[in-house]
Amino acid sequence: MTSKIKVECFLSVIEDIVLSDSPYEKFEDQVIMLFNYWVIIIILATLPVYYSLSGLWQNIFLLIASYLFYSYWDYRFLALIIITTSLNFYFGLKIHAAKDQTTRKTILIMSLMYNLSILGFFKYYNFFVDSFIAAFQPFGFLPNMQILNLILPLGISFFTFKIIGYLMDVYRGEQAPADIISFALFVGYFPEISAGPIGRAGTFLQQIDRKRIIGKEQIFAGLHLILLGFFKKKVIADAVAPYVDQLFSSPQQFMSIDLLCGIYLYTLQIYADFSGYTDIVRGASKLLRIEIMENFKQPYLSKNIREFWKRWHISLSTWLRDYLYIPLGGSKKGTARTYINLLATMLLCGLWHGASWVFVAWGGIHGTYLALSRYFRGSLKKPGSTTLQVHGTMKSLFSVFITFHIVAFAWIFFRAPDLETAYNYSYFLFNISHLGYSSASLIFITLFYMAVVLAIDLLPYRFNRELLVTSETPWLWRSIVYALLILSISFIGESYVQPFIYFNF
């Protein structure tokens, strides 16, 4: 696709949105196309203005840009984020100013009730109403409860958790209250507002308080991440999505080997989709000289489930650890309580992802994994315990293989639209009568994309770095890598258009 055609395509999307009777619905339909050009807008328009300003004016400019970006999703929710920001700014001041512990805790509880009520209303109201009605239907009781046609505000799960983290840090004395502009920018910062990562106030506020000057290293790393993110999204995630959709739509029609390929492909899709999005926004933010935390570190090369959660959606897993698991008591209140805390944390992790029982089941599976991992790790430390003596590379490969497959199995519940589909997929996956030959092309596609993801992750994993190549990499190898990425995006990526998966959360 030539540059002229791309520009015309982008302008046509803008025209469709502006002239549409329902701007929200049109934007939702075209969001992926707009997002693909959003980075170009930042580079061509935002940066020259941004770096012509300094200090407070840079923050004000970014805040205005963030609110404009948010209002284009649905201008009606701009008031929600402004009111929420203002109230929580006030809560933070009051928590910090309170003299006694009881008052501080009371204000914190009030702030948590407000934020969780807003999140619960928009995201979980219909879920709980449906569940309540379904629970009483077998007894012949039909509660007269109204289902509401609610639109989920963009990024509400992410900015709510950011705010709660900030208030908890202020309450603990780990964070001084920010000024209103800085706090509003922290909440609404547009690279993070759509789908995270869930930033921490301390790290973000320190960066916007200092002078920001772009350097060669930031430009190199930023453009590298943007390019890699587009490759992951368009060449991997979007390309395998049609196969995944077909296999999960009617699993009973496919052989077990087909369903196994479907699990592998979705495992790659969600990783490439979400980490690709994170790479794009981290790269764009680097060009603004604001670092966003690394959210993925080659998670499918983890040797156990604990390591997986240290490498997958790091901003969420660390948030749950610091603001939920540890406050619940962590591992400090006995073995039984530790298992309960792990399970409760992961159940809430699943529910955070969406108002559906499949997400709760997914969280429960991972909670069980973590509890079992802790149990066996403790058992192996006891005197007289015996272990399978496998050492070195073979042990590592075996551990990675097992961890990958238990994570992949859990993704069935994350991807399935309901528990019945998840059950059918699992049943026919392991049903002996469904053993048979699969399409050779599906197996080839699965192996090909698994090899591509492995190739992307292996070097950063081996050398513990975030970039596929660095500025120290010989220019010839860098040129080859960038040429392959750009050509792949140009010839393969334009064939598929899929929304980012985590825009739903």
Describe the 3D structure.
With 505 residues, the protein is mainly α. The protein has 19 helices and no strands. The two termini are 32 Å apart. The protein has a domain at 53-131 and 152-212. The protein has helices at 3-19, 23-52, 56-73, 78-97, 101-136, 156-172, 180-188, 190-193, 201-208, 216-249, 256-287, 305-311, 314-325, 335-353, 357-380, 392-415, 419-430, 440-463, 475-491. Helix 1 crosses helix 2, helix 4 runs parallel beside helix 6 and helix 11 packs across helix 17 (419-430). The relative contact order is 0.10.
Shape: globular
Question: Helix fraction?
Answer: over 70%
Number of helix segments?
19
Q: Which stretches are low in confidence, meaning pLDDT under 50 for 5 or more residues running?
A: 1-34, 385-390
Bin the strand percentage.
under 5%
Query: Could you give the count of β-strands?
Result: 0
Structural class: mainly alpha
Query: How many angstroms does the end-to-end distance come to?
Result: 32 Å
Biggest β-sheet strands, sense, barrel: none
Mean pLDDT equals 82
**How large, in whole angstroms, is the Cα Rg?**
24 Å
Q: Which series of helices and strands comes N to C?
A: HHHHHHHHHHHHHHHHHHH
What's the structural blueprint in terms of helices and strands?
Blueprint: H1 3-19, H2 23-52, H3 56-73, H4 78-97, H5 101-136, H6 156-172, H7 180-188, H8 190-193, H9 201-208, H10 216-249, H11 256-287, H12 305-311, H13 314-325, H14 335-353, H15 357-380, H16 392-415, H17 419-430, H18 440-463, H19 475-491
Helix pairs in contact: 1-2, 2-3, 2-11, 3-7, 4-5, 4-6, 4-7, 5-6, 10-11, 10-18, 10-19, 11-16, 11-17, 11-18, 13-14, 14-15, 15-16, 16-17
